[in-house]
Hints:
Number of helices: 13
Number of strands: 10
Strand content: 15-25%
Structural class: alpha/beta
Radius of gyration: 21 Å
Amino acid sequence: xPPLLRRALLYVPGSSPRFLRKSRELPGPVDSVAYxxxxxxxxxxxADARAAVAAILAEPRVPGIREQGVRINTVASGLAEGDLLAxxxxxxxxxxxxPKVNSAADLRFVADVLRHALPSASPAPTQSRIQILALVxxxxxxxxxxxxxxxxxxxxxxxxxxxxxALDLSLTRTPGLAEMLLARSAIVTAARAADLRGGALDLVxxxxxxxxxxxxxxxxxxxGRGLGFxxxxxxxxxxxxxxxxxxxxxxxEAAWAVRLLVAAGKAEERGRGAWALDGKMVDxxxxxxxxxxxxxxxACGFDxxxxxxxxxxxxxx
Length: 317
């Protein structure tokens, strides 16, 4: 089964009619939009936001949004069940983002509510049309990652909530994010170990305005991708294009992967298990990486036919 494409996950405040409307008029395509009922909504506006998000999900899909989700309130708040019942019956809901997941019990609760709310849509746990994404935001969650990842087959990705994590551990966020390295690596590793199709999504970048904001954002994306994250959370539409470009293969990377796979096919026909390309040794893990790059490039909409034609005569060294 191919990996899920969720390079950018853009949060939209559920209590703002203006932002809800603007989310359907974004300047470019976005992989995932998450209508927020949690942190961006004040306690006095929770009921209004729930109704507004349910209403926006009842409208026909817009072509530019690949996936629509809702970040519900925490299970501990007592509001999660009402949120789920209000939005889950919309055929346009694809994901539920569960904040401050501290244990497997939190996700089992959400999965149970979804199965009871949509019995005909999910005859078996693995067949639900709604996926769950879990926000890891506390030390307790970090220490419970294996059980969280095994809690329900509806879980397809982990998300790192850096601000609440910093609050929980009394950390000071620095530009280099060194204080977050352990948590970020642990989350990526846990998602991979559990074979979550959506992998892990990195922390929010608080900068977005002007050239300097875009530079900082691109730098964070580069660091996150290097750690193994599949995408990144966004809090402003202006961040989306930078993030989605950063978490897609670069043209040179796609060309390398196509060249390598052409040569790999010829090497396999000749019974060669290890060979070279551009003076560098190539074996099964390298070929596997090239296949992953090609699959992701296709998911991102790349037309690889010209590259395949260009490199069709590539030979293994």
